[in-house]
Amino acid sequence: MKRIALLPNHVAIVPDGNGRWAEQHGLPRLEGHQAGAENMRRMVEYLNEYPIKYVTLYGFSTENWSRPEDEVRGLFQLLGEFIDKCVSEFYENGIKLRHLGRLNELPQNLQQTINRAAELTKNNTRMTLGLAFNYGGRAEIIDAVRCLVAEGIPPQNIDEILFNNYLYTAGLPDVDLLIRTGDELRLSNFLIWQTAYSEYYFTDVLWPDFDKKEVEKALIAYSQRKRRFGGLQRGKKGNRVNSITPGNT
User: Fold this and answer.
1) Domain total in the chain
2) Are 195 and 229 in contact (CB under 8 A)?
3) 122 domain residue, yes or no
4) Phi, psi (5° rounding) for residue 110?
5) Ranges under pLDDT 50 in the chain
6) Which of 37, 174, 239, 247 is least enclosed, having the fewest CB within 10 Å?
7) Model confidence pLDDT, tens digit, residues 167-198
8) Of 39, 48, 64, 104, which is the active-site residue?
């Protein structure tokens, strides 16, 4: 396994291609989503072996409600099953689970599952895993503005630091590396505020096939980027570590 000199602090993933993967294998779309959920578990386990403190996964967007009703119900069921299967493992491995999005619009039983897992893992510190479910970047910004207005915050007091505190991701750092699988070259309304200076990594590999070797390619690509943040060269931002391999922490 290759050594990686510089790792991102916050990795966000748009795990695209489940439906096409299912079609290629002659399976129903929901089985593609099942394969995608299983890969999420493997990917979290793998990334947790590195000193990557924050991982955010895009599971269901505010636009996904327009999909067929049976597919939407199936996605809700898969998320509940994913959390139920993984929560003990997350707890034992120091992973804090955090939901990002409009929780109150989800089915009551799914809300309860998410809240129980978040409560159980709230004191974990090795990694924070954000599950963006019923999430939209524009909705997030609108909700933040509504809160600011409702609280009567004077306009002159609003700056980027304050605004960050009203986002779903309050307390989380900006995204260093955004990975999108499935050969699509867009953000799809995902963390549009938090990725202003992210490094993007796009691949044509479908999400269920995105394995350890593929994520390693993304991490290596990130380590070779030069990040200027709109100015002159100022060094790379991330986990400043030397020759890191999984488990070598």
Assistant:
1) 1
2) no
3) yes
4) -70, -40
5) 236, 240-245, 247-249
6) 247
7) 999 999 999 999 999 999 999 999 999 999 99
8) 64
